[in-house]
Amino acid sequence: MNPTPCHGLYAITDALLISDDRLIHAVEQAILGGARLIQYRDKSHDAARRLAQATALNELCQRHTIPLIINDDVELAAQVGAAGVHVGKDDPVFASARARLGKNAIIGVSCYDRLDLALEAAQAGADYVAFGALFPSPTKPTEIRAPIALLRKARAALHIPIVAIGGITPDNAPLLLDVGADALAVVSGVFGQPDIQAAARRYANLFA
What is the CATH number of the domain that holds 178? Predict the structure, then answer.
């Protein structure tokens, strides 16, 4: 397991919420508000744009000593020298991601509502696993729903960080922390708010 802890607010970008010209500023505001990890998630097929944005975000995150995780794209993570990658069920297998990025990369795995996937990921050497959506999500309204009780089972069975995602607000987040979540992955709760720094701080304060 990578020694870098996955703990606190894990802010995830969304091109629908943040215009290209605001991306760097928005992410910096999230970091200043207390985000401990940043994930660059962009599903477009504009490779040049994605490379430029990921490069700029990685430079920003390095200045603030915050890990940048690239969603779904192992090659992009390698290209920009990001801290790691987050993979899901349709992404390259974990072993190939580790081989490409090296032993020090942070590799997270989406496990949806399945403890068996998390156990497999942990056995393979994942640095964290993510479960969700825990609540109805405005970002992915058709996402698989995971019961909160799953986090308690996962905490008892796993020795790596657990990330909760999906519809998490500062009000419902304590339920997830109480049953074992180490980090809260948030999209619209941070980047969909008029004051990003203040929104991030509300989540970060839950870990104080």
Answer: 3.20.20.70
